Amino acid sequence: MKKLLLLFITLISLSATAQQISWEDFLQQLNDDLTSQQEDAQENSKNNDEWGGFIEDLHERHEHPMNLNKVTADDLHQLFFLSKEATEGILRHRDRYGPLRSISELVVVESVSWRERQLLHLFAYVDSIDEERPDRWDFTYAKNEITASADIPLYKRDGWPWARGIANRFRWDFKLPHHLHVGVRAETDAGERMFCKQTHLWDAVGAYASITTKGWLEQLQIGDYKVSFAEGVVISNGFRFGKMMNSQWRRPSGFRVHRSSDEVNFFRGVAASIRMGHHWNIAAFYSYRRLDAVIQADNSVYNLITTGLHRTENELSHKGTVGGHTAGGHLEWHNKGWAAGLTGLFQRYDHQMRPGPSLYQQIAPWGYRFGDVSINYSFKHRPWLFSGETARSFSAGKDGWACLHRLVWKPNTILQLAAIQRFYSQHYFSPYSNSFGENTKNQNESGLCLMTDAHWLRTYALSAYIDIFYSPFPRYLMTKASRGGEGMLQASWQGSKHGISARYQIKSKERNDARYWSHRIKTTWSFNPTDFWSFQALAQLNLYKTVDSNSTGYALMTTSNYTSKTWRWRTMLSYFHTDDYNSRLYFYEPNLTQSFSFPAFYYHGMRLSTTLRWQSASAQWFLESKFSLTHYFDRGEISSGVTRIGSSWKGEVQVVLRVRI
After folding, report:
1. DSSP element (H, E) containing 52
2. For residue 174, what are the β-bridge partners?
C-alpha cells in the first residue's frame, strides 16, 4: 500500500511540474514591491542600504542551497518565505514517506503553497542522504572565502580626482557550517579618502563572529550584528518588506551577523540567545557605536546622519561625533499555536537630542535617554493567524504608544486574505523601529491595509491590496494633518516557457499642502526557451497629477540571460523618457552577485548594462564584471555640486573577485 501511495505522489508531482521562477524574475518581483515605497529620495537611499544587506544574504543562500532531505526545522526557518505550517508540513511528510524525490512532490503537502514551492527551487534541492550533516566541531568542513570588488568610473566628478572616485570593498569569511562564522569587512565609497588621518585605511571597517550550538546557548554574536524581534515596532534594524510582501512572508526574528556594505543600520557589541526548555527563549544584547551627526552651537543634535558618506571636509567633520549606548532584550514563550513575548530597549546618547526648528521636527525626540517596552502575541489555528505587538516609548515627558496587528486567513494553498492595522502616535519614538508603514519612521501614522493573494491551476496568479493612512501632525513639506491611500492590482500567467504579468498601482498623497495622484502601469513578458537562455521585455508608464500640473514618464526595457554551470551573461537595454523628476521610473537591472539596486531614471535617455560571470568547476574561483553606460539626450551634464559630471555620458565598470579555500 505504501508503494502505491508513493507512486501516486510521484505522478502528482510530475504533473505539477511547471516552469520554475528564475533568480532574475524573483529579483524583479522584489523590485516591483519595493518601488511602491520610493516616494522620497531619502527613503530610496535608506531602503537601498537595508535591502543591499538582505540581497547579500539571499545570494548566499541561493549559491549554497540546502538539501531538503537533510535540513532541520532551524534550517528551514532561515527561509523567510516559508510559513511555520509549511516547515512543519515538509518535515512531517519526510518523516512519514521517507526522502523526497523532488521539490514538486510537495504539491501533496497541503500546508505548502504554490508560491512557497516556486521559491524553494531557488534555495533548496533534493538529493540522497548518504552524507550526514556534521553535528560536531569538525574543522575539516571549514571554509575560507575572500571577496574583493571595485567600482571604477569612466567619468570624473567635480568634487574629487578621478582615482578617488573608485569605490572598493573587501571581505574575509571563515565558516564552519552550522557552528561558527567569523569575518572582517571593509569599504570605501566613491569620493571617500583612504590612508588619511580621518579614515586610516578604509572608511568603514567591521568584524563579526557568530557561534551557534544545539545546547542551552543557541547563539552568541560578537562584533557587528543585526537584531529583529516580534513585528519590529520596537526594534528591527534589518530590511523592511514592501506592502504586498508583508502579508506573504515572515519577518526574521533574532540575531544575524552584519556583513553587508550598510554603514549605519547595525549594532556593534555582544548579543546572545538562550534556550530554556522547549517553550522559553531569552535574548539580550549590548552595543556601543560612534554615529554621524551635526553638533549645534549648544552642543545638541537635531537628528543623526544616515547616509554613511564621508566624501567632503564637511561630511568628514560629522563622522563619529555622537556616541550611542544601546541595550535590549527579548523574552518569548511558545507552545503549539500560541506565542507571547516581552521586548525592552534602552538607548543613551552622549549629546542631547533636540527637535529642529522646522514644524515637522517638533515631534522629534528630546533628551539623552530613551526607552521602549512592548508585548507581542500570536495565535495560529488553521486557517487563521493572528499576531501583534503593542509598545510604549519613554523620552523626556513625551511618552507615546504604538501597535501593529495582523490577521491572515488562509483556507487553502490557493487563497490568502490579510489585514494589517497600525497606529504610531506622534510622540512614539524608537530609534530602531522598522515595522510596516507608509512613512520612513514609525511615528505620526495610523492606517489599515487589506490584501489578497491567489494562485490556481499553477499558471494564474492574482494579487491586490488597498492601504489607507493618516498623519495627524504635519509631515515633511506639510503644515497640516494629511491623509492618503494606495492600491495595487497585479495579474500574471506562467506557462512552461512563456510568462506575462501586468501591474497597476495608484497612490494619492499630500505634499506642500496639496494633493497629488500617481499612477504606475507595468507589463512584463518573459520567455525561457531552454534551461540556459531566458529573455524578458518590459514596458512601464508613470503618470503624476496635481491640481496645477501633470507629468508623464515611460520606459521600454529588454533583457537577455544565459546561465550555465561555469558562465553567466546578462544584458539589459532600456529607453526612458519623463517630463520631470515627479514621473521618475524605477526598474531592476542585472547586477553583480550579492548586490541589488533599483535606481531612479528621469528625463530622456538610454541605458545599457551587461554582466559576465565565470566560476570554476570546483567553485573555488569566481570572477564577475559589469559594464554600464547611460546617455542623456536632453542635457549636457549630470547631477550638480561636487557630484557634477560635465558630460551627458556616464559609464562605469565593476569587478568582483572571490576565492574559496
Report:
1. helix 41-63
2. 144, 182
DSSP 69: T
Checking DSSP bridges between strand 280-291 and strand 293-295, what pairing results, if any?
A: unpaired
Tell me the one-letter amino acid at 567.
W
Of the candidates 21, 23, 188, 30, the one whose C-alpha atom is nearest the C-alpha of residue 597 is 30
pLDDT tens figures, 623-646: 999 999 999 999 999 999 889 999
DSSP annotation of 358 reads S
Q: What are phi and psi for residue 525, nearest 5 degrees?
A: -125, 130
- Using the 8-state DSSP alphabet, how is residue 279 labeled? T
Across 28-42, 117-131, 515-529, least confident range: 28-42
Amino acid letter, residue 215:
G
The pLDDT-based confidence of 119 (bands split at 50, 70, 90) is confident
Q: Which residues contact 15 (CB under 8 A, 6 or more apart)?
A: none
pLDDT of residue 130: 52
Does position 649 have pLDDT exceeding 80, yes or no? Answer: yes
Report whether pLDDT(464) > 50.
yes
SS3 151: strand
Residues 6+ apart with CB under 8 A from 101: 10, 13, 126
> What is the grid cell recorded at 625?
564584471
d(CA 620, CA 394): 52
Task: Spell out the residues 6+ positions from residue 25 whose beta carbon is closer than 8 angstroms to its own.
Answer: 499, 526, 536
Grouping H, G, I as helix, E, B as strand and the rest as coil, residue 75 is helix
Can you list the positions of beta strands (E) in 277-414? 280-291, 293-295, 300-304, 322-335, 338-353, 367-381, 384-394, 400-409
Per-chain mean pLDDT for the chain: 86
Domain residue limits, the chain: 1-131, 169-456
Of 255-259, 424-428, 649-653, which range is least confident? 255-259
Give the amino acid at 53: G
Place of cell 561558527: 180
Return all residues near 109 (Cβ < 8 A) that are at least 6 apart: 86, 89, 90, 93
CA dist list (Å): 4 to 9, 58, 89, 128, 537 = 9, 38, 21, 21, 45
* d(C-alpha 366, C-alpha 628), whole Å: 45
Taking the CA atoms of the chain, what radius of gyration do you get in angstroms?
Answer: 25
Lowest mean pLDDT among 34-43, 115-124, 146-155, 549-558: 34-43
Q: Output the nine-digit C-alpha cell for 623.
A: 570572477
Which comes out higher in pLDDT, residue 527 or 17? 527
Residue 644's identity, in one-letter code, is R
Q: Which runs of consecutive H residues, i.e. helices, occur in 130-256?
A: 243-248
Residues in the chain: 661
3-state secondary structure of 65: coil
Q: Domain 169-456 falls in which CATH fold?
A: Porin (2.40.160)
Q: Are strands 143-153 and 460-471 parallel, antiparallel or unpaired?
A: unpaired
Residue 589: name the closest of 616, 565, 555 by CA.
555
Residue with cell 527637535: 355
Q: What pLDDT was estimated at residue 39? A: 52
CA dihedral 44, 246, 452, 406 (to 10 degrees): -130
